[in-house]
Design a protein that fits this description.
This protein has 632 residues and is α/β, with parallel strands linked by helices. The chain has three domains: 97-339, Up-down Bundle (ABC transporter transmembrane region fold), CATH 1.20.1560; 351-388, no CATH class; 393-626, P-loop containing nucleotide triphosphate hydrolases (Rossmann fold), CATH 3.40.50. It contains 19 helices and 16 strands. It has helices at 10-23, 27-43, 45-62, 65-117, 121-125, 129-171, 173-220, 222-227, 231-284, 298-339, 432-439, 462-467, 483-488, 496-506, 509-513, 532-546, 562-576, 611-617, 620-626; strands at residues 351-357, 363-365, 373-378, 384-388, 393-403, 406-416, 421-426, 447-452, 455-456, 469-472, 481-482, 522-523, 550-554, 580-584, 596-601, 604-609. The strands form four sheets. A six-stranded mixed beta sheet has the order 10-13-14-7-15-16, with helices on both faces. Strand 3 and strand 4 (384-388) form a beta hairpin. Helix 7 (173-220) runs antiparallel to helix 9 (231-284), helix 9 packs antiparallel against helix 10 and helix 16 (532-546) runs parallel beside helix 17. The protein starts with 9 loop residues before the first helix and ends in a 6-residue tail after the last helix.
Length: 632
Amino acid sequence: MNKRPSKPDGGSLLRAIRMFFGYYPVLAPIAVVCILFAATVSSIPSLFIQKVIALIERWVESGDWASARAELTPYLILLGSLYLLSIAAMTAQTQLMAVMTQGFLDKLRRDLFNGMQNLPIRYFDTHKFGDIMSHYTNDIDTLRMLVSQTLPSFIQSGAVVLVVLGIMLYFSVWMTLVLLVGVAAMIFVAKKVGGGSARSYVQVQKTIAENEGYVQESMNGQKVIKVFCHEAQGIREFDEINERLYRHSFRANAYASTLGPIIANIGNVLYVTLALVGGVFLLTGVKNVSLSGAAFSISILIPFLNMTKQFTGNVNTLSQQINSIVMASAGAKRVFELMDQQPETDDGYVTLVNCRVDEDGTITETEEHTGHWAWRHPHGDGTLTYTLLRGDVRMVDVDFAYEEGKQVLYDVSVYAEPGQKVAFVGATGAGKTTITNLINRFYDIADGKIRYDGINVNKIRKGDLRRSLGLVLQDVNLFTGTVLDNIRYGKLDATDEECREAARLAGADDFISRLPQGYDTVLENNGANLSQGQRQLISIARAAVADPPVMILDEATSSIDTRTEAIVQRGMDKLMEGRTVFVIAHRLSTVMDADVIMVLDHGRIIERGSHDRLIAEKGTYYRLYTGAFELE
């Protein structure tokens, strides 16, 4: 059974409008005043027509054309002046809206992106990148349509409807009541047809996001798609999503296309009805009830019929804005869903500072870069203590689950003293990467303790914690920019020479020097013009330039051939000197020299010790190293 589509979120729409006026507390009201003035002026001619017809009737009876011209001239001058002012108001309004619309989108994207930067890793692990990108494109574009076209049109048409209705009541209450019967019919149709359109447009926005998510995923996986000959299946899956988008879009536009003609034809029927009723009033001499007190005459009927066209035309315009409003409502809801995501919490108060270490071991905080770092630890009694950054990492009885009820780590304890190299090995899914994610506090543990230089990591500010950790991942991300820029990403204030030294340390200098512009070569599309090994070498150089006391290498050399690995390993050995290093590796030759090797299986550490000791025990590590597995 299909789930009924969700309704548009009016609260999100109002929030977007309030945000717009909040960004422009002066310019936005000025634009609204300009719109209202122009709308009011466009409704005034009906009053002049009534005056002109009444004057003509009197002039025909009296024959005094000279006094008629003198009496008519002020009205014409006033009307011309109002139209000139209306043109000026509309010009000012269009210019203001152009400035405010683009400014609103600029500020909205900034707020959205700034908020996204503070989201936890968990959010990106559970949402498709294409869906997230859709917030910045399609969803924000619906808000552009709202503030640049829909909102001004809605204010203008609404103002015209109200002004014209007031003038109609001024002319004739009876005729206005007949008009309101037709308006009730318009509202009924708009509610029925517009409701179906609204639900369909909400589904359109969701399906567009799904469509873009699938396209983005397919683009990233093109090599895999081709290698496994998955093109036909990919086309079928895309066609299914695209077909859903077609159905929702067809239904939404069918409703939208039907609403306008129906409202317009109701307006035509209403015009004819009012003409007949007005004719009957004239023939039967029905007593007019009006705010003006004037008797019902041809001078009232003609402008009233003109205003009927103006009234129904603007009601039709208002009904046509329903679709844009609904799309903007759906887009605003999705934008604010991302914007309102809970940011990554950080209750840490221990910070990382530059320090100077005196001969007697006294640690003194300093603004200068000394090459020494310390943890600045404020206490509840107002005192401060400083702990030298050494890279002592300890996990004690840690339990963890990504999702409740699906535990990943069980009672894991890891002890890494400063300068030690600790390796994690085991089958895929055993929990190796999860341990390093917890050290970085990408996720928080469910139970147990993680201490860094004797300090609970929950007390350390996350930014400072991560500054002290170097991370080299199996999946490399290179950003658009020069090679030098990508290396400097590890330390934004690094000099060019420091970046080149880091590249030499990682063994990347040789191939970088052979690039067309060397270190100034621009990398695009995640470094697609480089081999996987070269991209990994740049990633290692990026970590090297940060010069952290703790390094985490998650399959750092998995994409490098054996010859290149030997070059990198020499650089890595220099990089790891004096540092605490956590290594995750499937290629066991890279961890043989580790001080401690820990074998994980289904979230538990089942073996630990040096390479020689574990080989001698002939347990799981021995079987992993020798390939001596028994078939079960």
